[in-house]
Amino acid sequence: MSRINADKTKYIMKPFLPILAALLTIGTTTTAEQRPIFDAHIHYSHDAVRLVPPEQIANLLREAGVVKALVSSSDDNGTQLLKAAAPDIIVPALRPYRRRGETGTWMHDPSVVDYLEENLAQFEYEAIGEFHAYGDDILTPVVQRMIELARERNLILHLHGDREAVDLIFETWPDARVLWAHSGFDDPAEVTAALDTYPKLWADLAFRSDMVSRGTLDEDWRAAFEAHPDRFMVGTDTYTPERWYYVGPHAEFSRDWIDQLPDTVADGIAYQNAAAMLAKK
Q1: Are the CB atoms for 182 and 205 separated by under 8 Å?
Q2: Cβ density class 83-113: b for 16+ within 10 Å, e for less
Q3: pLDDT beyond 50 at 14
Q4: Does residue 16 or residue 228 have the better pLDDT?
Q5: pTM of the entire structure?
Q6: How far apart are CA 245 and CA 250, in angstroms?
Q7: Distance between CA atoms of 144 and 132, rounded to whole angstroms?
Q8: What is the DSSP string of 61-74?
Q9: How far apart are CA 220 and CA 53, in angstroms?
Q10: Which of 36, 65, 91 is nearest to 258 (CA)?
């Protein structure tokens, strides 16, 4: 098993129904009193585009109380379709992938640079990523050029990688804004240490449920959230089409554990931190 798949298997959430037809009937219980959600880790890739139209995806996000979503896709067509369907919700990001199966090879493929440059010239984005890179992958010419492109346009870098990759990005571009996907699948103390080191590092909690045990917020995670109340955010990670079933339940799951924190911390994780990250240009 690759380390990418091993990461997600280690922290997999409760099983969900792998039936795309459910997307057409699913509802939520979102009310005006519930916190809005900024989902900072959404994908709408080519396989999901074939199965669920963008208008339905937009409705699903609205019903879940997701008022903003950082969206990327493989290829970029899904992102553009969804932005057209819900421009008030979608915050577009550009992945360096044109199709599935490139997560471990893209950093060695010079044609990726052409793909990024062409899309950046044609469309507006707030981020590049989510991209997978570990350790000295960051030093490859392709990744270095991608960081340069982000720097030229002041875009967020949404990294799925380890602490070494985080360090090397900031070594390359000290003023980068980096969103660390899945908080690196690291322990809360290690995540806190990274956030202590880099004021412009944020951490999403996509595809993680270890913040909670039997409905109670983990104390180590509580300490991390209170140490850096302005740097964490939630995300669903719809990396396969069936994960779209989980957008509504994930929003409710997030609200349940976030509600165990002080309101100022809870509001930050639910929405405000992601909005502030985008505003720091």
Answers
A1: yes
A2: bebbeebbbbbbbbbbeeebbeebbeeeebb
A3: no
A4: 228
A5: 0.90
A6: 9
A7: 14
A8: HHHTTEEEEEEE-S
A9: 40
A10: 36
210: which 2 tokens? 């270890």
Torsion of CA 196, 268, 226, 280, to 10 degrees: 20
Place of tokens 């009937």: 25
Model confidence over 232-274: pLDDT tens digits?
Answer: 999 999 999 999 999 999 999 999 999 999 999 999 999 999 9
Closest CA to 76 of 45, 122, 35: 45
What stretches of the chain show up as alpha helix (H) in DSSP?
3-10, 46-51, 54-63, 77-85, 111-122, 141-153, 163-172, 188-197, 219-227, 247-258, 263-267, 273-279
- At which residue do the structure tokens 């060695």 appear? 108
CB 234 within 8 A of CB 259: no
Helix (H, G, I), strand (E, B) or coil at 118: helix
The alpha carbon dihedral of 215, 256, 14, 27 has a sign of positive
Q: Domains of the chain, with CATH numbers? A: 34-279 (3.20.20.140)
More confident residue, 19 or 64: 64
Is the distance from CB of 238 to CB of 73 less than 8 angstroms? no
Burial 159-193 (b: 16+ CB within 10 A, else e): bbbbbebbebbbebbeebbbbbbbbbbbebeebbe
